[in-house]
Design brief:
The chain is mostly helical and 504 residues long. It has 21 helices and 2 strands. InterPro entries: ARM-like (IPR011989), ARM-type_fold (IPR016024), PP2A_B56 (IPR002554).
């Protein structure tokens, strides 16, 4: 009986869909979408559902004759429920225009109710789904979800950078409908009756790549659902784990080195945070390369503040798993340290403190010299929040112990910056905090403090002397030039004083 209803003939000319090269079976009955290799509808642009380029919707007229409610699952015998499920899934392949809220209202309500019924059917299933059901579910989901994302703000901003922080996100009017499709996908993936070996024929590499493309959606609600769905796929289909990591990594590469435009970086990093948490020790070389080539360079883009919380979590996870990576991470952070963006700089300081909390003394000693120079530069920042944030490091007992154990190296580097703050910073809070840090050093090791103060005074006197010599040299040049200006002769001057770096 079922073979008569569902023709299992495979057309030699049928286009292969994303489901592992299989074609869909055709369902008899008027008004229902077919399950053949050819999609039942074309989008407004003429693209098939499987092409990933659907921007439109079903444009044919829909009426009560060919889109009508079907019986509920509880109203049909168990033997007919699978047949009814396939019919409902086929009808849900019909697409509507959600840009126009007044169009096809009744049909949209019918489709929503069917999606809810299908979700409940999948949720309460007690037997393994046969291949025909798996095939129909994945087809319906792909028809409704896979589409070209609409992002008008980017198309208009060819001449200036796209700002993920300032630009208003696009709220998809179809989201209330898409939500039910995502819920069905999530229920289907998590269902214990969904055999992973069978389902992977349809939830394949192509399916996963199209899901990843949707992470660039302007609608944060869709990205949040995608995050959950992809995480569940990663957990259920172990065979796809390397592929998913590589595919996400490629998105990061394109974002860092080409476009710096993507809406879903935060969500993808959040997924990776959970993945990194599950890495076995010792870490594979592949994972360490991901840290060095991807996560650390993600500090570079201008819009880092949008996803910095998730990025910081991923970085810290690596250091906690392998303390030997602390030196690499800290040096990488210094490499991409912001120069003119004080907001971003404050975030970097917060991340640095978290990394230092997970750092061991031996690793700290490897990077303490460049780190101390960066701290000194932050101490002298004209932006009070940056200077204040780095001075709060001394409230961290872990950092305080590092400084205490290596004060002979650290204090000479940061002492001039502290003195400069005390004597000339415009913010009173920064001055006061600098005095407190100065007192900590003087109380702990008076001899070292005195030596640093003496050297600072000597360097200051030497700087004054050098500046005076420079002024005299320029004055001499001015006098010679003034004397020769009327004669038109070339002015020959003896070599000037060699340049010396400033010590203040």
């Amino acid at each position: 009986m079922m073979k008569q209803i569902f023709g299992r003939r495979k057309s030699k000319t049928a286009d292969k869909e994303f489901t592992g090269g299989r074609t869909f079976n055709q369902l008899s009955g008027s008004g229902a979408a077919n399950l053949s290799g050819q999609p039942p509808f074309l989008s407004g642009t003429g693209n098939t559902y499987g092409s990933g380029n659907r921007t439109g919707f079903q444009d044919s007229r829909i009426n009560d004759t060919n889109f009508r409610p079907l019986p509920s699952f509880k109203d049909v015998p168990n033997a007919e429920k699978q047949n009814l499920l396939i019919k409902k899934l086929n009808m849900c392949c019909t697409l509507f225009d959600f840009m126009d809220a007044a169009k096809n209202i009744k049909e949209k309500e019918i489709k929503t109710l069917m999606l809810l019924e299908i979700d409940e059917y999948v949720r309460t299933a007690t037997v393994k789904f046969p291949e025909i059901v798996v095939e129909a579910i994945t087809k319906m989901i792909s028809v409704n979800l896979f589409r070209t994302l609409i992002s008008p703000p980017r198309e208009k901003k060819v001449l200036r950078a796209f700002d993920l922080e300032e630009d208003e996100p696009l709220m998809d009017p179809a989201w209330p409908h898409l939500y039910h499709v995502y819920e069905l996908l999530l229920t289907f993936v998590q269902s214990p009756e969904n055999d992973a070996k069978l389902a992977k024929r349809y939830i394949d590499n192509s399916f996963i790549l199209r899901l990843l493309e949707l992470f660039d959606s302007e609608d944060a609600r869709e990205r949040d659902r995608l995050k959950t769905v992809l995480h569940r796929i990663y957990g259920k289909f172990m065979v796809y784990r390397p592929f998913i990591r590589k595919a996400i990594n490629n998105i990061f590469y394109q974002f860092i080195y080409e476009t710096e435009k993507h809406n879903g970086i935060a969500e993808l990093l959040e997924i990776f945070g959970s993945i990194i948490n599950g890495f076995a020790l010792p870490l594979k070389e592949e994972h360490k390369l991901f840290l060095v080539r991807t996560l650390i360079p993600l500090h570079k883009p201008r819009c880092t503040t949008v996803y910095h919380r998730q990025l910081s979590y991923c970085i810290t996870q690596f250091v906690e798993k392998d303390c030997k990576l602390a030196d690499t991470v800290i040096r990488g952070l210094i490499k991409y340290w912001p120069i003119t963006n004080s907001t971003k700089e404050v975030l970097f300081l917060g991340e640095l403190e978290e990394i230092l909390d997970a750092t061991q003394p031996a690793e700290f000693q490897k990077c303490m010299v460049p780190l101390s120079h960066q701290i000194a530069r932050c101490l002298n920042s004209s932006h009070f929040q940056v200077a204040e944030r780095v001075l709060f490091f001394w409230n961290n007992s872990h950092f305080e112990n590092f400084v205490k154990q290596n004060s002979k190296v650290i204090l000479p580097i940061i002492f001039p910056a502290l003195e400069k703050n005390i004597n000339g910073h415009w913010n009173q809070v920064v001055q006061s905090l600098s005095l407190n840090v100065r007192k900590i050093f003087s109380d702990r090791d008076p001899q070292l403090f005195t030596e640093c103060l003496r050297k600072y005074e000597e360097d200051k006197d030497r700087e004054k002397e050098f500046k005076l010599k420079q002024e005299l040299a320029w004055k001499r040049l001015d006098e010679i030039a003034s004397a020769k200006i009327t004669s038109g002769e070339a002015v020959l001057v003896s070599p000037t004083l060699p340049r010396q770096p400033s010590v203040l």
